[in-house]
Amino acid sequence: MERIGIYPGTFDPITVGHLDIIKRALHVVDRLIIGVALDTGKEPVFDLPMRGKLVQQDVETLLGPEAARVEVRTFSGLLVNFAEEAGAQIIIRGIRAISDYEYEFQMACMNARLKPDVETVFLTASEDTHFISSRFVKQIARLGGDISSFVSPNVAERLKAYYASL
Fold it and tell me: How does pLDDT run across 51-106, given as a tens digit for each residue?
């Protein structure tokens, strides 16, 4: 049976940390669906279609042949319902720090209660990316700093244009 995983997130914007988790998730699953979420309680810089487009562009540009095993979808509503609709058995979550783990552990327990057939797998961030967060990337970009080591050139251009338009 094909192992299908979902890697959900806001991806506002997608960072090299996200891409690291995506690459490593492909060692765990046969096919990976990146779920770009609408309902996160966050105030994103980019709207849902743009976030989906940026993720798709980075996947195609940076993953090479492995991109064929990745699908980008936007979604709204409960993650476990999205996973069930997609036929996924695994939810992939990246963990950067202990504070991430506490939240993600609670979410995994809730998801397991809602859909016991969907398993959550935690991948720890690599030492090269554990400090990167979309929130910090946006703050650095807003203040005119260099974000080129945190995001793709495409994303860096979009963020620069966004903050220049304010």
Answer: 999 999 999 998 899 999 999 999 999 999 999 999 999 999 999 988 789 999 99
- Is 134 one of the catalytic residues? yes
Burial of residue 69 (number of CB atoms within 10 Å: 0-12, 13-18, 19+):
middle
Active site residue 42: yes
Which domains, and CATH codes, for the chain?
Answer: 4-131 (3.40.50.620)
Q: Give the pLDDT confidence score for residue 44 in this predicted structure.
A: 92
Query: Would you state the pLDDT for residue 164?
Result: 94
Judge whether 138 counts as a catalytic residue. no
Catalytic member of 24, 31, 53, 96: 96
Q: How many CA atoms lie within 13 A of 40 on its CB side?
A: 17
114: pLDDT strictly greater than 90: yes
* Rounded-to-integer distance, Cα 56 and Cα 161, Å: 19
Which among 42, 135, 142, 160 is annotated as catalytic? 42
- Helix H, strand E, coil C: the string for 9-70 is ECCCCCCHHHHHHHHHHCCCCCEEEEEEECCCCCCCCCCHHHHHHHHHHHHHHHCHHHHHHE
96 carries an active-site annotation = yes
Asked if 51 and 9 touch (Cβ cutoff 8 Å), the reply is no
